[in-house]
Amino acid sequence: MVEIRLVDPEQTRPLRQKVLRPHQTLEELVHPGEKHPATGAFGAFAGDEMVGTLLVFPETRAGSTSGAQWRLVAMAVDPDYQRRGIGAALISACLDYIVARGGDEVWCHGRTKVIDFYEAMGFMPDGPEWVDEYTGPHYVMWRRAAS
Ligand SMILES: CC(C)(COP(=O)(O)OP(=O)(O)OC[C@H]1O[C@@H](n2cnc3c(N)ncnc32)[C@H](O)[C@@H]1OP(=O)(O)O)[C@@H](O)C(=O)NCCC(=O)NCCS
User: How far apart are CA 125 and CA 143, in angstroms?
Assistant: First the structure.
């Protein structure tokens, strides 16, 4: 049984480093979005252990005209806990959080290797694939916040 809770953004950094960015130090993992006063940092807990995380905060998606836009970053589930619905539970919690704060849309830089996850979560691609030097191919992915 996994519980989804709001946490301090700093708490998410070790899992983000392990799952997403092993090439960076914990200090380098401080995301500018952590500083926004409306930021929601979510942790999925199995007992005391954080096994999943994501962050959301207001940020405009280039070219979008769909109202209040929020960005999702740091979507990560520990490899030992993947494919058990934890990523889906984190997305559901962040959508509730965004809607409760008047958000209309959520978007992210989705890694191509997990694009099926984002599509299963209702996200759609916007524009062509592009490549990050360290983390590989991505698409901009977005969806309406309300279901
Ligand atoms: C992507 C990630 C967050 C998904 O988390 P998860 O807890 O494993 O996902 P869920 O179990 O909630 O999956 C929900 C649905 O998404 C789809 N899905 C999830 N992972 C998938 C994958 N690797 N490939 C294809 N479809 C996937 C499936 O439809 C799945 O439902 P199912 O298991 O009933 O078939 C996780 O695999 C992860 O952390 N990957 C490594 C880091 C990463 O790439 N993060 C994204 C950065 S943009």
Answer: 9
Closest Cα to atom 42, ligand 1: which residue? 76
DSSP state letter for 147? -
DSSP class of residue 60 equals: P
Pocket test for ligand 1, best of 82, 109, 121 (most atoms within 8 A of CB): 82
Query: How far, in Å, from the CA of 120 to the mean position of ligand 1?
Result: 9
Q: Residue 100 — left, alpha, or beta (φ > 0 → left; ψ -120 to 50 → alpha)?
A: alpha
CA separation for the pair 27, 4 (Å, rounded):
25
Domain residue ranges in the chain:
3-144
147 residues of the chain, pLDDT tens digit each: 899 999 999 999 999 999 999 999 999 999 999 999 999 999 999 999 999 999 999 999 998 888 899 999 999 999 999 999 999 999 999 999 999 999 999 999 999 999 999 999 999 999 999 999 999 999 999 999 998
**Residue pair 36/114 in contact by the 8 Å Cβ criterion:** no
Q: If one looks up domain 3-144 in CATH, what number appears?
A: 3.40.630.30
Question: Where do we find the tokens 């978007």?
Answer: 107
